[in-house]
């Protein structure tokens, strides 16, 4: 099991405990999909250094980029503003089909209760 943090422009942001090997699109699918067009950002801390990665749905769904395997305690950020031309109504069903076809046994073990902003500052 790993813990990942889903922030921003999704229907159900929060902290999730998922199986090791869970991907970026699987997390987005479980979080209910996006609420507006966006690029995907992942913040990961390794050995005290922070790394930020950026992905687009188009690149992952077309096969140009691989679907990203999430690491323990990474933060996936779905920013609120973007220049993407695709709408959530177009992207969410594509992601659902992609996840269902590529990961037929995908399931999230349990969702961790969302912390309040006050709790997150500790």
Offer a few descriptive terms.
alpha+beta; Ubiquitin-like (UB roll); six-stranded mixed sheet; 4 helices; 26% helix; globular; disordered C terminus; SLBB domain-containing protein; Soluble_ligand-bd
Tell me what you see in this structure.
- The protein is α+β, with helices and mostly antiparallel strands.
- It has one domain: Ubiquitin-like (UB roll), CATH 3.10.20.
- It has four helices and six strands.
- The protein has a six-stranded mixed beta sheet.
- The radius of gyration is 14 Å and the shape is globular.
Quick synopsis:
The chain is of the alpha+beta class and 122 residues long.
- Structural class designation: alpha+beta
- Strand-and-helix sequence, N→C? EEHEEHEHEH
Specify the CATH class: Alpha Beta
**What sort of overall outline do the alpha carbons produce when their principal axes are compared?**
globular
CATH fold topology: Ubiquitin-like (UB roll)
- The unreliable regions are 106-122
The helix fraction, in percent, is 25-40%
Report the span from N to C terminus.
23 Å
Number of domains: 1
On the 0-100 scale, what is the average pLDDT? 71
Strand segment tally: 6
Radius of gyration: 14 Å
Strand content: 25-35%
CATH architecture: Roll
Number of helices: 4
Instruction: Give, in spatial order, the strands making up the sheet with the most strands.
Output: 4-3-5-1-2-6
Q: What profile does the largest beta sheet have? A: 6 strands, mixed
């Amino acid at each position: 099991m790993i813990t990942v943090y889903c922030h921003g422009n999704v229907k159900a942001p929060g902290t999730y405990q998922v199986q090791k090997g869970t991907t970026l699109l699987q997390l987005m699918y479980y979080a209910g999909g996006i609420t507006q067009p966006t690029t995907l950002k992942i913040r990961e801390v390794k050995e005290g250094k922070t790394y930020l990665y950026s992905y687009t749905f188009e690149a992952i769904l077309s096969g140009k980029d691989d679907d990203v395997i999430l690491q323990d305690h990474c933060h996936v950020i779905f920013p609120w503003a973007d220049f993407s031309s695709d709408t959530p109504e177009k992207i969410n069903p594509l992601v659902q089909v992609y996840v269902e076809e590529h990961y037929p046994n995908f399931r999230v073990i349990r969702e961790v209760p969302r912390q309040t902003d006050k709790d997150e500052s500790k």
